[in-house]
Amino acid sequence: MKRKILIISLVTGLIIAISLSIFVMLSVQNKYIAKDKAKAIALQHAGLNESEVRIKKVKLDYDDGRADYEIEFRKGRTEYEYKIDAVDGTILEFDMDNN
């Protein structure tokens, strides 16, 4: 049985049902570092600045009960991929590939 949370809008009186997992995700989302902060951490680690690269992806993701940012960017033929902890900004994974 899926657990639901009912939210009643005080303005419209509409009842909105959302799953408990979505509610939990939304309630903790404001505890995460901003996307721009995660991007800055990756760029600083790579020794680059935003004007030097082409950003391909900055995405908040949830894997194995952990929120992280997946960040991908290129400078020339070099592609960088980062996984940054969304709570404290720790670099969890890093990969650099010269194509």
Question: Which characteristics define this entry?
Answer:
Nuclear Transport Factor 2, Chain: A; two-stranded antiparallel sheet; single chain; 4-stranded antiparallel sheet; 99 residues; elongated; alpha+beta
Describe this structure as you would to a colleague.
- This protein has 2 helices and 6 strands, in the order ββααββββ.
- The chain has 2 domains: about 1-30, no CATH class; about 30-99, Nuclear Transport Factor 2, Chain: A (Roll), CATH 3.10.450.40.
- A 4-stranded antiparallel beta sheet has the order 3-4-5-6, covered by helices on one side. Strands 1-2 form a two-stranded antiparallel ribbon.
- It has helices at about 20-30, 35-45, and strands spanning about 5-10, 15-20, 55-65, 65-75, 80-85, 90-99.
- The longest helix has 12 residues, at about 35-45.
- Helices cover about 20% and strands about 45% of the residues.
- A hairpin with a 2-residue loop joins strand 4 and strand 5 (about 80-85).
- It has about 100 residues and is an alpha+beta fold.
- The chain starts with a strand and ends with a strand.
**Cα-atom Rg, whole angstroms?**
18 Å
CATH class of the largest domain: Alpha Beta
Mean pLDDT, all residues: 83
Here the CATH topology of the largest domain equals: Nuclear Transport Factor 2, Chain: A
Number of domains: 2
Largest sheet: 4 strands, antiparallel
Tell me the series of helices and strands, N- to C-terminal.
EEHHEEEE
